[in-house]
Amino acid sequence: MDQNPNVHNRPAAQDFPIAVSEKEVKLEIKKNGIIRILYVVGGTVSFILAILGIVVPGLPVTPFALLSAYLYAKSSPKLYNWLLNNKVLGPRIRNYQRRKGITRKGKLGVIAFMAVMTLFSSFIVVGAGTLRWAILSLGTIGCIVVTFFVPNAKEE
Fold this sequence. Notes:
- This protein has about 160 residues and is mostly helical.
- It has 2 domains: about 20-100, no CATH class; about 100-155.
- It is built from 7 helices and no strands.
- It has helices at about 20-30, 35-55, 60-75, 75-85, 90-100, 105-125, 130-150.
- Helix 2 (about 35-55) packs antiparallel against helix 3 (about 60-75) and helix 6 packs antiparallel against helix 7.
């Protein structure tokens, strides 16, 4: 029998096939309990928005999933590893982390989808007025952010 008493408290390796070492996570986790709770709440809200983005047109999935991963990494290794192993969002997050960005083809797809949804929302759903210009402005800002601020993926 193993003499280490902590062995029984740890999950088996197959429970978390993709995990971050405790040393890496400890460097990221905030010490203040209130801050950690706020990170967990923010991560959970962004996780819910990412799941909603799967079925709601125009609501992005990957940015909310990445935000959720960031906030969980700051608060809880258990939640972070759970998210990385999530069947729906895990592959998106791991792909972004592995490639350090989004491919050019992916960026073009995101920009095209944002443009279509922005034009649809502003000219078909909403009548003329201030709201139309607000939607067009936000859509333009979104396209600019994706084009210039989201990193391009490294080629494999």
